[in-house]
Amino acid sequence: MAQNDVRERISATEAAEELETTHLRVLMLIKEGALDGIQDGEEWSITRKSLDCFQSHGSNAQAQIKCRTACGGNCGNH
Fold first, then answer.
1. What percent of the chain stands above pLDDT 90?
2. Are 52 and 41 within 8 A, CB to CB?
């Protein structure tokens, strides 16, 4: 993993704390495609960008995808 990738990722546990939910819920959000996650052994990490978009757009999957792929933070929601 490149150095930039490491800085732009947080653990699933940290994501759960930020979302005020459980580690299991974060894993479910990864499975549903609501969060971008990468598994390294038994640990999961989440991209900061996907977490920010999820926090801004909630369960609106289309808005999240558009935000993560196109807005660059300029969607007006973060």
1. 42
2. no
Structure tokens at 63: 């808005």
Q: What is the mean pLDDT of residues 46-67?
A: 74
Q: Helices then strands (H, E): number in the chain?
A: 5, 3
- Whose tokens are 């490149």? That residue is 2
Cα 61 to Cα 43: distance, rounded to the nearest angstrom: 24
* Burial of 54 per CB tally in 10 Å (0-12, 13-18, 19+): buried
Q: Which residue has the tokens 């038994």?
A: 42
The CATH architecture assigned to 3-71 reads Orthogonal Bundle (1.10)
pLDDT band at 56 (very low <50, low <70, confident <90, very high): confident
Return d(Cα 45, Cα 71) in angstroms, integer.
Answer: 22
